[in-house]
Inverse folding.
């Protein structure tokens, strides 16, 4: 609160419900097109000094006022890439935390790190903006006489890192093994970031070789690694991926190496 480098912007919108009747022809009220944008999608701060603060911009893109709440959460990631996010308000000052954007207005949101100035490992967070509903007169009446209400609420999520000077990623493949899953041969890969900064697996090429035939190696390009290429491995985190067993690779124990471009 998934760019790469990481660009995590998500949007929830266009939730419509008819309040009366069925088979309704819904006419959107004027405020349904209210929207906004958040930039940048990724911000890196340092734990101390002038770079311990930075800013985002929230820009109105609609014709009506937009109410927005801004907050920061921490960011933990499990082996499958699922995120756990908890409130991190004690670690940051976010100003302003709430905004009422007028049409065409641009608002700067300042984010200042208040946490440990001596962190040794990069800390990952999410900055989340959520549009709040505004009652601008309630439901409207359609030509058929049916009352309709439409809510169009947008939620943007950006990556926020607090990175100490000199932090570097150090990703290794800690596991590459054959798995039999649902009657099919699969390759399980586990990437372990032992470093102090996150790493995007961008431009990933993977070289596999049977333990019994080291010379019979097979190299997979980024296009063949959909779902792995471009993924994020946070500092001191592991990511696990399962993919179909590569065609032409003998089934059995393998060694694995990779390059990023």
């Amino acid at each position: 609160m998934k760019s790469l480098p990481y660009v995590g912007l998500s949007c929830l919108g266009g939730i419509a419900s008819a309040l009366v009747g069925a088979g309704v022809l819904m006419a959107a009220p004027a405020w349904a097109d209210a929207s906004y944008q958040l930039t940048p999608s990724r911000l890196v701060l340092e734990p101390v000094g002038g770079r311990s603060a930075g800013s985002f911009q929230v820009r109105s893109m609609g014709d009506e006022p937009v109410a927005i709440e801004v907050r920061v959460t921490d960011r933990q990631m499990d082996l499958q890439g699922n995120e756990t996010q908890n409130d991190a308000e004690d670690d940051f000052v976010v100003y302003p935390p709430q905004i009422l954007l007028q049409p065409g207005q641009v608002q700067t949101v300042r984010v200042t790190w208040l946490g440990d100035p001596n962190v040794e490992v990069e800390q990952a967070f999410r900055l989340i903006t959520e549009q709040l509903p505004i009652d601008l007169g309630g439901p409207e009446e359609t030509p058929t006489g049916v009352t309709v209400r439409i809510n169009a609420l947008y939620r943007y999520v950006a990556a926020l890192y607090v990175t100490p000077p000199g932090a570097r990623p150090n990703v290794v493949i800690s596991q590459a093994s054959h798995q039999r899953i649902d009657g099919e041969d699969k390759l399980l890969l586990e990437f372990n970031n032992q470093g102090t900064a996150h790493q995007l697996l961008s431009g990933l090429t993977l070289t596999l070789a049977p333990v019994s035939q080291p010379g019979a190696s097979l190299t997979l390009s980024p296009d063949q690694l959909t779902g792995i290429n471009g993924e994020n491995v946070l500092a001191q985190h592991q990511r696990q991926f399962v993919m179909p067993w590569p065609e032409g690779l003998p089934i059995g124990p393998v060694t694995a190496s990779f390059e990023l471009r």
Notes: Residues 171-259 form a domain with the Immunoglobulin-like fold (CATH 2.60.40).
